[in-house]
Amino acid sequence: MGFSYDPRDAIRCLPEGDYQATVEEMQETTSKAGNPMLVVTYKVYATGRGEFSLKEYIVKQTTWKLKQLAKAVNANFESGEVVQDEYVGRNVVLSLGVEEDAEYGDKNIITAVKAAVTRTPPKKFNPLPPAATVPASENDIPF
What we know:
Oligomer: single chain
CATH class: Mainly Beta
Number of domains: 1
CATH architecture: Beta Barrel
Order of helices and strands: EEEHEE
């Protein structure tokens, strides 16, 4: 009786691909180098794996990441200011890759942020025409 396993189960991160996500939080902070930094936390939804948080770090040199996120959630990137209400709580699609890290093992990286696919709103509900009103008697009350 030997211990058997599937080598694919040894991966701690999600396989490369697109995943539904929600912008959970945006925090303005300072990087280790002392520069302004924005930390974006996403809640990622993976079928069969549940949900988990994934962070993306944006500094001046990677402002293109913020531009991509702004486009995905239809936020005003051109203002030059981050208005959190335009981002937090918004749904997106994250393209995830896998990066090998000798010290920490495989980890997911965000390779792209795209607009979430929205469903077509349902057709307008047309209720039945109002029924003729009949005065209720005490006998009609079920209690």
